[in-house]
Design goal:
alpha+beta, 5-stranded antiparallel beta sheet, single chain, disordered N terminus, 13 helices
């Protein structure tokens, strides 16, 4: 089944926001002296930061300053899309080449922040500069410092592109930016990452309407983030997709991200069902082999019962999940229908063996020996 991945890359304009006076000279100077041998991995960088700084405020500054200072924006490849690059690949390549686009900055910042003990997330969305909404997606970060969620954009904080060339200059406006201020330029696809109790809709973002509207239903993003963290990855995709759709699909970037999350959740859910089905098939075939050997070597009645009940439970669960899969894309409908047929066919055969085992266990040991005949294998795993 095809996997769709949207690579998030953007950063191409001069940032108009004003600079914030730097009160972190001590931190910045200390980071400037980090040995090169301690910058080959996020683990090494995080260890250096933990060794030299005590407060979360100092640590997050160190993370921001190192990332913004040491990664050069890769103008040449800003539109290149690598659909097979994982988060780990992005981080390792950017650390090796010291180049990257927004997602590389964000991934590095996020991983170092988490490794120094600061809760942090990568945020995906789109941006507006000088009244113009960009047509390429962007990525930045949100981190919780002293009990408050703040925004960090190490890409825009590292410099700007002027005349097609990257000019490095640390911009402190994008360090610890208040969510109510950054929303005028940074719009997350998922409004949970706005960190606002009255989230801005995509239409309001386009219209430049950022006034707090308390007539809206209050959104407790703190509670929702905690719920999100407790979900499985599949359910995180689904909940995020629901919020993205609710906030209005106003451009191709939003549509692409929504489509990816929906299709990825569908793909993972189906693969989960296939894996469960395969486990059931393999266990059932093991049972068939054991029956054809006349249940030898000897096992207890409880173990024998478990040998047939376990595949039945897994196959019934796979059937339940298939029946509750919901709307399936046209590309996957044939696969789903084929698996449903396979599950129903094998379950009828499994039930025959369940009845056999129940009957077998109800007989005396002498009578049990007369009950055996050869049984063929009933299923093969799905690739």
């Amino acid at each position: 089944m095809k996997k769709y991945i949207i690579l998030i890359t953007v950063f191409y304009s001069i940032i108009s926001a004003g600079q914030v006076k730097n009160k972190y000279e001590f931190v910045d100077n200390k980071i400037n002296t980090i040995p090169s041998s301690s910058t080959n991995s996020t683990e090494d960088i995080a260890n250096y930061i933990k060794l030299n700084f005590k407060t979360d405020d100092e640590k997050i500054r160190a993370v921001y300053y190192w990332t913004a200072s040491n990664i050069i924006y890769d103008v040449e490849n800003m539109f290149a899309v690598n659909f097979n690059e994982s988060s780990r690949d992005k981080i390792e390549r950017a650390l090796k080449t010291r180049k990257g686009v927004c997602i590389h900055y964000a991934e590095i910042f996020n991983e170092i922040a988490n490794k120094v003990g600061i809760e942090c997330f990568v945020i995906e969305g789109f941006t507006k500069q000088k009244g113009f909404t960009d047509y390429i997606s962007h990525a930045w970060c949100g981190a919780k410092i002293d009990g408050k969620w703040l925004i960090f954009d190490p890409t825009w904080g590292s410099g700007a592109i002027v005349g097609g060339k990257y000019i490095k200059k640390i911009n402190n406006y994008y360090f610890k930016t208040d969510p109510s201020k950054i929303i005028t330029s940074h719009m997350p696809f998922d409004y949970m990452w706005q960190f606002l109790n009255y989230p801005v809709t995509n239409q309001e973002f386009y219209n430049g309407n950022f006034a707090v509207n308390k007539s809206k239903e209050t959104f407790d993003f703190e509670v929702e983030i905690e719920k999100y963290k407790s979900l499985s990855y599949i359910d995180q995709l689904i909940s995020s997709a629901d919020r993205i759709e609710k906030n209005g699909v106003k451009n191709a970037m939003i549509f692409d991200r929504l489509s990816y999350k929906r299709s990825e959740a569908e793909r993972l859910k189906f693969n989960e069902i296939v894996n469960l089905y395969n486990d059931g098939i393999n266990e059932f075939n093991s049972f068939v082999t054991f029956r054809n050997n006349q249940f030898k070597p000897n096992v207890s009645d409880e173990e024998l019962k478990k040998m047939i009940d376990s595949p039945k439970t897994k196959l019934l669960k796979s059937k339940e999940l298939l029946d509750n899969l919901g709307t399936v894309s046209q590309n996957n409908q044939a696969n789903v229908n084929s698996l449903k047929t396979g599950v129903n066919n094998i379950l009828s055969q499994v039930e025959d063996q369940v009845l056999f085992v129940d009957k077998y266990l109800g007989k005396s040991k002498m009578m049990r020996k007369t009950m055996f005949n050869k049984v063929t294998f009933f299923g093969v795993p799905v690739n």
